[in-house]
Amino acid sequence: MSLDEGIIADIRQFNRFYTNILGVLNKHVLDTGYTLTEARVVLEIGFMEPCIANQLVEKLDMDRSYMSRIISKLQKDGLLEKESSPLDNRTSLIRLTPKGAELFQQLNERSDEQIERLLDGLSPTEITEVRSSMLFIQSKMNRLERAQNDSI
Amino acid sequence: MSLDEGIIADIRQFNRFYTNILGVLNKHVLDTGYTLTEARVVLEIGFMEPCIANQLVEKLDMDRSYMSRIISKLQKDGLLEKESSPLDNRTSLIRLTPKGAELFQQLNERSDEQIERLLDGLSPTEITEVRSSMLFIQSKMNRLERAQNDSI
DNA sequence: CTCCTTTAGTGGACATAGTCAACAATTAAT
DNA sequence: ATTAATTGTTGACTATGTCCACTAAAGGAG
């Protein structure tokens, strides 16, 4: 045991706490007719387009086959289109259609509103401090995330 | 739009980031023969015992029926025992058996090790600062979590 | 080039996780 | 006393995720 017990307990407490926060947020991105996972895929395509399925798989840490099925569904629904890549004939370049972009925008707006509601009641100073704390945590842990993924 | 766009974007970015962190951690609590959800239930019983099913449902934000099935399984496996409550005949007081307490301890140790690994490479000062940032975020968002749950 | 290995995507079959509606028993409220 | 709300259970279902086998194309190594 190299670390103070209290620190670990506090961090585990924070993880439980933040699990709940994320749970509340995720639960209410819905109501678009798409599931949470589908919505996450649409959002990620919106951020990365054009992209290939495998990039989405890695980014969202999902199973290939699962992603394949979701992409099929979204394509059938007219939210995205695939263009076979000139560089690698195994892959397709994926882009949102106008209809997909519309959903993307809707999801973004809802997410933004959720964050605003989450911060409602805090002063501008407090909000700035929360943001700084998040950026700080991220800066300290983000190389570690990679390292841990690699080691597994 | 009352808030600076950048702040919301940063917070959403942090949420995506921390979703991944929690995903990595959760993926490897396993290997005890129990699923993540079952493990969470065992942990929560360990923290709260004696408790009733409904408290676990609220704490872990799970469906009643799902919890009922998990509790049945854990009981069948000899990890917990139910004593019918003298105060309310609808409910049972739930406690870990010695075997359940053993798993509880194992889960706790693993979780602690994971956090240590997550912090590995940071200086004591950095670790302290990360902890402070987490406590700060929690203190600011704490009451809000409740308020949001209620309003929904 | 040819042979071998790796990578990207797909589909079938399955396993796990979570949800919904109906119900019985009990307790709380009016 | 009657009605309403709570607790837990079960069946049926949907959503989510995993595993395996397979095809097709790239990327080497010789």
Automatic annotation (TrEMBL), chains A, B:
Q: What InterPro entries does UniProt report for this protein, alphabetically?
A: HTH_MarR-typ (IPR000835), WH-like_DNA-bd_sf (IPR036388), WH_DNA-bd_sf (IPR036390)
Annotated keywords: DNA-binding, Transcription, Transcription regulation
Which SUPFAM superfamilies does this chain map to? Winged helix' DNA-binding domain
Give GO MF terms, alphabetically.
DNA binding; DNA-binding transcription factor activity
Q: Where is the HTH marR-type domain?
A: 4-139
Any one Pfam family match given in the protein's UniProt record, by short name:
MarR_2
PANTHER family listed in its UniProt record = TRANSCRIPTIONAL REGULATOR, MARR, TRANSCRIPTIONAL REPRESSOR OF EMRAB OPERON
- In Swiss-Prot or TrEMBL terms, this protein is called DNA-binding transcriptional regulator, MarR family
